[in-house]
Amino acid sequence: MRRIIFLAIALALGSVSLVLRASPSRANPVHEMQVVARQFAFEPAVIQVTQGELVRLVIHSADRVHGFAIRDLKIDVQIPRGGEVVVEFTAPRAGRYEIACSEFCGSGHGQMKAALVSVTATSTAR
Ligand SMILES: [Cu+2]
User: Fold this and answer.
1) How far is the CA of 89 from the centre of ligand 1 (A)?
2) What is the pLDDT of residues 48-83, one digit of tens each?
3) Structure pTM?
4) Sign (positive/negative) of CA torsion 58, 96, 24, 17?
5) Ligand 1 centre and the CA of 55: distance in Å?
6) Whose CA is closest to 37, among 97, 107, 103?
7) 6 preceded by cis ω (within 30°)?
8) Structural domains of the chain in order of their starting residue, each with its CATH number
């Protein structure tokens, strides 16, 4: 919501927005999301972020040990049974990044995948 207001102000003020964007606290709010890992899926299965924004995923395992890997971003963490791990990153390009479980967790492990979809800032008006 704050982001939408900021974008509206930035559009209204035109060149003044360059000054506002120079302020890190306004230009780079953290996009925090909860992710649940369980045999054999991640919820949500599609995580949408904006290219260049700071993303914080709080990943919780609902059953056993799982992995959470986004190979293109060099992220690979182990989520303990019943515990959670926080991962922070920025998607450097728009597009699709594959997310996979990187810890063998049972018969459906190979199908335990999700997607990170990064879109450019102009196409995220919500
Ligand atoms: Cu697995």
Assistant:
1) 22
2) 999 999 999 999 999 999 999 999 999 999 999 999
3) 0.75
4) negative
5) 23
6) 103
7) no
8) 29-123 (2.60.40.420)
